[in-house]
């Protein structure tokens, strides 16, 4: 009970002292303090609004930047796929053409080989010796049913489709050059995209140039 009375008395004394101090402060000073408090609160609220707006704009800018680079990379991938498809189609066409040319040369070589083989009495086509080879082929003389002339000594000859080998080598060189050109172009574009992404500035407010 005594403690409660003492506390109440102390509180009353403190309040009276505060009223006395407040009463001594001029009204103009209270106005200045109020203006300062209101201004401080306004500055704090303004800074919060600016920070929130900056964060929103920054996130929007980053989102726009990511979308832009995703579109560019998608376009680069699509272009690379088109180049790859064209290259594969050209390579398949070239391979087919090389195969057809090789088959044709093989058939021609087989036909030439058949012409050099002995076909029977009266139709023998023999391989000429070194002396006759300079002047052309030598055919059998006499009637069709005449006996065959003796064959000359066998010469180590071979039929080689030289034109086909040269053509195949040229086409292979062209195919390799095209493949190297395409790969060089593809690697150059990938490197350019990587450098552009590293050098591009990050927008602060989503302003896409």
Q: What features would you highlight for this structure?
A:
rod-shaped; disordered C terminus
Question: Can you lay out the helices and strands and say which pair or pack?
Answer:
Blueprint: H1 2-24, H2 27-116, H3 130-135, H4 162-199
Can you characterise this structure?
Helices cover 75% and strands 0% of the residues. Helix 2 packs antiparallel against helix 4. The chain is mainly α. The chain is built from 4 helices and no strands. The protein has helices at residues 2-24, 27-116, 130-135, 162-199. Residues 118-141 and 205-209 have low confidence and may be disordered.
Weakly predicted, low-confidence segments: 118-141, 205-209
In percent terms, what proportion of residues is strand? under 5%
Could you tell me the radius of gyration in angstroms? 50 Å
State the end-to-end CA separation: 79 Å
Helical/strand content category: mainly alpha
Portion in helices? over 70%
**Spatial shape:** rod-shaped
Task: Summarize model confidence as the mean pLDDT.
Answer: 74
Instruction: Write down the secondary-structure element order.
Output: HHHH
Instruction: Note the total helix count.
Output: 4
Strand tally is 0
Brief account:
The chain has 209 residues and is mostly helical. 75% of the residues lie in helices and 0% in strands.
